[in-house]
Structure formats: structure tokens, C-alpha cells
Design a protein that fits this description.
The chain is an alpha/beta fold and about 250 residues long. The chain has one domain: Metallo-beta-lactamase, Chain A, CATH 3.60.15.10. It contains six helices and 15 strands.
Length: about 250
């Protein structure tokens, strides 16, 4: 066999292994998830699908103003521009960008929205700004982001008519957070909604501490068990939504 043929076979083997690995990662991460519901609106929050199985939320703050929760992958934030235009708005009408966490598939728009205040959990700043790398296959973020304001568990963030209650949810990342907006719980990557309307913890290979991530969902369930008002809708960043609140309240690991 010639050297050229051997080299070609080697390349094909590498491509095949890479494709198989990608398929395994994709199916493990998203295979059982409900598809993202692009354009779905839950009270004040509208889902924006950036790329397949990656979404963010545009929250109506009243008087033509909005808050963007997460930023997807696209640094030019084209999907967000489209949805803003549908509301007769532009990026100048954004009051803030709130990050559930600092992975690269959640911060893209922030690079383009440099004039919009950027918010992140106090334990997430170094990751967002590219000063630290997560303990998983994600590398450091490219430089260029600066967190303008931090929040912590229990904080109430108010922007116009929109009120966000912060739930620190470590495990996926150390500063990972979820937001309750009215009756809608925006989970980010805290958990994902499966096709049978249950919750699944974030993929272990993308999480800093998978066991902590599972414990965090249980803890979140206990917090809501003791509250008279429960969420009526639960939405994940890499999945669709569910109105089956028992998926959270009765969550017992996966």
C-alpha cells in the first residue's frame, strides 16, 4: 500500500472517530431533550433560538424596553436583532444582559452589546471575563467582556416592570444561576426538560461538578416546596419548556 493511501486511510479514520465522538456528545447532551421552542412566549419571556438546541430569553420590561437573558453563540446576535425588530425595538432598547453562567454558548451577544450593562453571579466573573477556565472541555473565553454588575443568591433585580429573583445553582459552573420572572423559571443550564416532561441534570462532561449539579436541583426543589407560589412554567436553555412543575418539586436525581 502506498504512503498516500495509508495517509488517506488515516485521515478517514480520524474523521470517522471525530464524527462518532460528536454524535455521542450531541446525543448524550441533547438527545432526550424537548426541542427548543423558538418564539414561544411565557408571560414576559420570549425564547430566542440561536443555533440548534441553544437558546436565550428576551424579557419584556415594559415601555418598549427589554432584558436579554444569556447571549447564545453568535457575537453579532442576529437572532436577537430579529426578535427585537418584531417588537419594534433595537439593541438600544436593552436595559441589561443577564448571564445564567459564563460558558461560551451563553455569552456570545455580550461581545457585540458592549454598551449594554452585563450582569453575572459574583462567582462567575473570572469565567465570563476569560480569566479562568471551567473544569470541563470548554476552554477560556476570549477576552473582551467585562462584568458591570454582580448578583448573588436571593437578590431581586428590577428593570422597569420586569423582576428577576436570583437562585444560585452551582455545579454546572460555580456561579451558575437560574432566574424566576413572574411565574416562569428560567433555568439556563441548571437542568433541561426532557421529552417526557421531566428534568435532567446538565451533561456531566460539560459540568464542573456533576454531583453538585444534581444536588442543586434537589435543593431548588426544596426551596420551592416551602413557597406558597410555585412556578407555572420551567424553561431550559438547551430544551423546550414544561408546565409540569412536579418535575422540579419531585425531582430525585437522574
Amino acid at each position: 500500500m502506498s504512503t498516500l493511501k495509508k495517509a488517506l486511510i488515516g485521515v478517514l479514520v480520524v474523521i470517522g472517530i471525530g464524527a462518532a465522538l460528536f454524535g455521542y456528545v450531541f446525543l448524550t447532551a441533547f438527545g432526550g431533550n424537548k426541542p427548543v421552542e423558538d418564539g414561544a412566549t411565557y408571560e414576559r419571556a420570549t425564547v430566542i433560538e440561536d443555533i440548534s438546541y441553544v437558546s436565550m430569553y428576551l424579557v419584556d420590561a415594559g415601555n418598549g424596553k427589554f432584558v436579554l437573558v444569556d447571549g447564545g453563540v453568535d457575537q453579532k446576535y442576529e437572532a436577537t436583532k430579529t426578535v427585537l425588530a418584531e417588537h419594534d425595538a433595537t439593541a438600544q432598547d436593552l436595559l441589561a444582559v443577564l448571564l445564567t453562567h459564563g460558558h461560551g454558548d451563553h455569552i456570545g451577544a455580550a461581545y457585540g452589546l458592549t454598551d449594554v450593562p452585563l450582569y453575572a453571579h459574583e462567582d462567575e466573573v473570572a469565567l465570563v471575563q476569560g480569566e479562568a477556565a471551567p473544569d470541563n472541555p470548554f476552554g477560556k473565553n476570549e477576552p473582551g467582556l467585562k462584568v458591570d454588575h454582580t448578583f448573588k443568591h436571593g437578590d431581586i433585580l428590577e428593570f422597569g416592570e420586569a423582576r428577576f429573583e436570583v437562585f444560585h445553582a452551582p455545579g454546572h459552573t460555580q456561579g451558575n444561576s437560574a432566574f424566576l420572572v413572574g411565574g416562569v423559571l428560567l433555568l439556563g443550564d441548571t437542568a433541561q426538560v426532557t421529552t417526557d416532561d421531566q428534568l435532567h441534570s446538565p451533561p456531566w462532561f460539560f459540568s464542573d461538578d456533576p454531583e453538585q449539579a444534581i444536588a442543586t436541583i434537589r435543593g431548588l426543589a426544596k426551596q420551592f416546596e416551602s413557597r406558597p407560589e410555585k412556578p407555572n412554567t420551567i424553561v431550559g436553555s438547551h430544551s423546550g419548556s414544561t408546565s409540569n412543575v412536579d418535575a422540579l418539586l419531585k425531582y430525585d436525581g437522574d
